[in-house]
Design a protein that fits this description.
The protein has about 400 residues and is α+β, with helices and mostly antiparallel strands. The chain is built from 10 helices and 14 strands. The protein starts with 8 loop residues before the first strand and ends in a 15-residue tail after the last strand.
Length: about 400
């Protein structure tokens, strides 16, 4: 700009979108005269500009300051604008005797200012793109870590079939399910016959914060399970352990904790305000809800939890799920809701399908309701446990019979 009109120097003061001076992009020519100007502008408090509308800030703060710092020089000033948004201010100055700003000079400098506005906007877009790329890389890394923390396969437990799936709304989610042996380092037959903890939880919110809290909660719970305490005591102790961390994050956790004993087929459970699992009773041909009283994890330090117990029979099917399933919205805005889930679960169980086929059918029903091309608004997770049906052998003929 200064060479174009044979001026002494020029000064470019670009702005951030919120009105702050973009200090990293302050530019000047003109030697020592501009050095002090740049120093003063870099030290100008942001509040002096942000407290005024952008146009008013320029005319009442920047223009007088630049004019005063340049001394007796003649100054031409024009706004750098792109898409009707002021991106900055261009000052061109000269202290040479007889120098004047002709109309041709003004037009040329305005062309430079307009081109500069486009360049500044492009630089801002490039920075946004680089920032989004960094966030995408962080999200991808977080998703990989979380995927490794969720079980990559269901364990082998004597007498039952298991199937599980988590579908996060974002790359990183707050849903949590786990299968934890209650005996440290069991192996072989002892592992299959031992008592197992089956857990389903949901951290309030989505994305990276919820994923980090889920990871923290998982570590606490896995350590607590080895204590061998009943489900209500597990939740009580977990609530106290997680209280401080959850209070600082202003988030809470719902959690359904259960343990299953294969030799007796006895399921014990406690609930911290999570969606009650559904139990399909093969003999009765109906669906029941498993629930127990209890508050959210992180709500009250001395919260108490109830403990329930159920005897499972061959052919019974248990469904754990998060509210991302029942809260999923269809095309009309209607939610999938618990009634629709119970109906779909009942149909799948009555068909005599295995655990994996039941899970696949439920997710297919959910996708059909939401729309296969639409993204879920919340993480959706389901775990299916089916007690294997006993093989009934025909009775042996009695001695002496035909």
């Amino acid at each position: 700009a200064s060479r174009l009109v044979e001026a002494e120097g020029a000064l470019l003061v670009p702005f951030h979108a919120d009105g702050r001076i973009w200090r990293e992009q302050l530019q000047a020519t003109g030697g020592d005269r501009c050095a002090e100007v740049l120093r003063q502008l870099a030290a100008l408090p942001d509040s002096q500009l942000q407290a005024r509308p952008s146009g008013e800030a320029v005319t009442s703060v920047l223009d007088p300051l630049v004019g005063r710092l340049l001394g007796q020089a003649q100054v031409f000033a024009t706004s750098v604008v792109a898409r009707s948004i002021q991106q900055g201010r261009l000052y061109v100055f000269s202290g040479r005797r007889g120098f004047g700003w002709s109309e041709v000079h003004r037009r040329h400098l305005q062309i430079v200012a307009d081109l500069t506005g486009v360049a500044l906007e492009n630089e801002g877009l490039q920075q946004d793109m680089r920032r989004h790329e960094r966030l995408d890389r962080q999200m991808s890394t977080g998703a990989e870590i979380q995927a490794q923390l969720l079980p990559d396969r269901c364990p082998v437990i004597e007498g039952v079939e298991l199937a599980a799936r988590c579908r996060p709304a974002f790359q990183v989610g707050g849903d949590y399910y786990d299968f934890i042996p209650t005996i440290p380092e069991p192996a072989g037959r002892r592992r299959e016959q031992g008592r197992w903890a089956l857990v389903m939880g949901d951290v309030m919110g989505k994305g990276i914060p919820a994923g980090l809290l889920m990871t923290l909660l998982r570590g606490m719970l896995r350590a607590e399970v080895l204590s061998g305490l009943p489900p209500d005591r597990i939740l009580h102790d977990l609530n106290q352990l997680a209280q401080e961390d959850l209070a600082h994050s202003h988030r809470f956790v719902t959690l359904f904790y259960s343990d299953y004993d294969p030799p007796t087929r006895r399921l014990r459970y406690a609930n911290a305000a999570h969606n009650p699992p559904l139990l399909w009773r093969r003999a009765a041909g109906r669906v029941e809800r498993l629930d127990a009283p209890g508050l959210l994890i992180g709500l009250q330090s001395e919260a108490e939890y109830g403990c329930g117990s159920q005897q499972l029979d061959p052919g019974d099917v248990l469904l754990y799920y998060t509210d991302g399933v029942t809260e999923a919205k269809g095309f009309s805005g209607e939610r999938f809701d618990e009634v629709r889930l119970m109906r779909s679960f009942h149909v799948a169980c009555r068909s005599g399908l295995g655990a994996q086929r039941i899970l696949d059918q439920l997710f297919a029903r959910l996708d059909g309701f939401v729309g296969s091309d639409r993204q879920l608004e919340d993480d959706a997770s389901m775990v299916v446990l089916k007690v294997r049906e006993e093989v009934m052998l025909p009775p042996l003929p009695s001695p002496g019979g035909p």
